[in-house]
Amino acid sequence: MSSSFDLYVARRSWLHDLDPRTKLAFMLLSLIFLLSVGNLLIMIGFLVASHLILLSAHIPWSRIRWIWERMLPLTVLILILWPLFYQEGGEVLLELWRVRVTAFSLVEGAAMALRVDALAFACFILLLSTSQSELVRGLVKGGLPFSWGLTLAIALRYLPTLYGIYTTVSEAQQARGWAIGRGDLVKRLRSYMPVLVAVIITALRMTDNLSMALAARAFGARRDRTYLKEVRFRTVDGVLLAGMAGLFLALMVARFWFGFGAEPW
After folding, report:
1. Residue range of the domain that includes 164
2. Would you give the DSSP letter of residue 150?
């Protein structure tokens, strides 16, 4: 497994050229809106729009399929469990002992399952079209302290690396006959000690190397900094941001004053 896995897909498109703050605002407004409504048709519409946005930005279908493969188990689980535990009114389709599956609960379960998928795609639109450096730079431009932005950049850079190290060490230990212990939780945790010790030692070495690299680059010695690729808020970003804000306010008014999207169907 590659230890440098990144969700970002490098392409030249209108979505990639947008300021990271514009895409971050889209993600936040979308999350708030999706969490405030529970209508199945709205979730389907948002998912269709998300796919059109990604495809228009030349994101390969293989990456979109990868997202669905990760989301499918949770989606199916919600579809199965929701009608069993939320037996609300409506036409009874199936009744077995104390379990009553109604048409309303099925529709509501489908809406909740697709809501999770829609929330995920709202985030993936940002992650698939924005590199780690651009995302952190956009956050710093938005007011995040530089040290916090650097911390986030380091986390985004090294978390996949640590996972790759864990996978490599686990495979090496399994080749030597290591197996996950059975029994209670304590015994199972103890069986992971050979792997965890190796990962922690490697992480400490990486931390020491990183601290020396930052010191060699005189981190914190000056306030003004230069960047290889500067992010700029253009006119198109302002137009899109104003349009998103207006649409969001209109949808919120429709939701809380007129009940738009409150019902699952």
Report:
1. 144-232
2. H
